[in-house]
Design a protein that fits this description.
The protein is mainly alpha-helical and 375 residues long. 71% of the residues lie in helices and 2% in strands. The chain folds into two domains: 19-53; 58-310, no CATH class. The protein has helices at residues 3-18, 21-43, 55-79, 88-105, 119-123, 139-163, 169-187, 213-238, 241-258, 263-289, 299-312, 317-337, 342-356, 360-374, and strands spanning 199-200, 204-205, 208-209, 291-292. A hairpin with a 2-residue loop joins strand 2 (204-205) and strand 3. Helix 11 packs across helix 12 (317-337), helix 11 (299-312) runs parallel beside helix 14 (360-374) and helix 12 crosses helix 14 (360-374).
Length: 375
């Protein structure tokens, strides 16, 4: 009996450490909108109604939530640890390819050539699956690959980079070189990943047709749940002792070393975790978009991920999510209305944020709210 009050106190302290009352209310409201309001407006509201949300909008917002997970991952290593990566697109794409392998195996004989092999393998005169395609027809094995492949690559890369004390702009450059090298590798037809066309024309997942409203909503809800869980996990990490050490590494790594901590271990952990988060986001992204190809590994995509975090507010988890939403909603509109001006707008946005909003949109709102309170 004496242990019960202690347990309750520990639970309360954990919840209060993550967020205050207003923070938890905000999380609950957003979860209610994503998990209840959105599905009801899609399923229950008639097509002509003002409150109806189309299947296209469901897939679009689901895609944005996958991007938000990537932004969270970037904020953990850049905003809180001070490691600017320009290669996170490769971890996102590898997670997508791991899930894409399962989706391609699930097509079965419904392809153009009615073969056990994917159409691109038949076209290239492949006779059998490569060894690394083994067991990818198992969903749970594919889910394991989604985390293991990006995580293993990040661990190996980070182990040598951090031990060599490569940091700053030099680290950013080699991460960009890494993603460019992988993009060129996956563009080759002889790697067994579809070349420049990648994977597409998915039919089903877990035996359920993928191009249905119910499956789109299922993937949307799964993306929302994963995003919320990732946000809470990231919040837990940054409010823990680990988070304080990471912030100290960002601000003064040499002082952290003098106090007896080994920054390499901490940076390697958060770097690998960040890559796994990107892999999970990529796996959720692919069935909703319906394609994965080497262009997802483009260095420009990785730079864009950093812009999301900068726009929303570096060092603010909510800001990372907000930045991913703002930039990608703007991209969706610009690429339809003014496709030739999108890159100019993106560059101008980054310059404006850097010069006038160094703390991002969240920082601007915070300053505005403080001014209102003082007034």
């Amino acid at each position: 009996m004496p242990d019960l009050p202690k347990t309750r106190v520990m639970e309360k302290s954990l919840f209060s450490r993550l967020y205050g009352p207003r923070g938890w209310i905000a999380v609950a409201v957003l979860a209610f909108i994503a998990l209840v309001v959105f599905p009801l407006c899609n399923i229950a509201a008639p097509a002509g109604s003002f409150f109806h949300i189309s299947d296209y909008a469901v897939s679009l917002v689901g895609k944005f939530m996958c991007y938000a997970i990537v932004a969270l991952a970037m904020d953990l290593i850049w905003g809180y640890t001070g490691i600017l990566s320009l290669g996170h697109g490769v971890f996102f794409a590898l997670g997508g390819y791991a899930m894409g392998m399962y989706l391609m195996r699930s097509i079965g004989h419904d392809g153009v050539y009615k073969s056990d092999l994917p159409d691109f393998m038949v076209f290239l005169d492949w006779k059998a699956y490569p060894w690394y395609w083994k067991f990818t027809d198992n969903f749970w094995y594919a889910c394991l690959l989604v985390m293991l492949v990006p995580g293993a690559l990040a661990f190996i890369f980070g182990f040598f980079a951090f031990r060599s004390r490569i940091k700053g702009v030099y680290f950013s450059i080699i991460t960009q070189a890494m993603t460019f090298a992988f993009m060129l590798l996956f563009f080759r037809n002889d790697t067994g990943f579809g070349g420049n066309n990648g994977f597409t024309d998915f039919k089903r997942i877990l035996g359920v047709p993928i191009a249905t409203s119910s499956m789109r909503m299922t993937l949307f809800l799964l993306s929302a749940v994963v995003l919320i869980l990732m946000l809470l996990m990231a919040r837990y990490l940054i409010t823990s002792k680990l988070g304080r050490v990471l912030t100290a590494i960002r601000d003064a790594e040499s002082r952290v070393m003098f106090t007896g901590y080994n920054p390499v271990n901490y940076k390697l952990f958060i770097w690998t975790l960040s890559a796994v988060m990107c892999g999970i986001a990529g796996a959720l992204y692919v069935p909703q978009v319906g394609i994965i190809n080497p262009s997802e590994m483009s260095p420009a995509n990785s730079i864009e991920i950093a812009i999301w975090v900068a726009v929303g507010g570096r060092g603010s988890l909510v800001g990372a999510i907000l930045g991913a939403g703002i930039v990608n909603f703007a991209k969706s509109w610009f690429t339809v209305a003014f496709p030739e001006y999108w890159l100019f707008f993106l560059g101008a946005l980054f310059i404006v944020v850097t010069l006038f909003l160094p703390t991002g949109v969240v920082g601007w709102f915070s300053r505005f709210a403080k001014k209102e309170v003082k007034a």
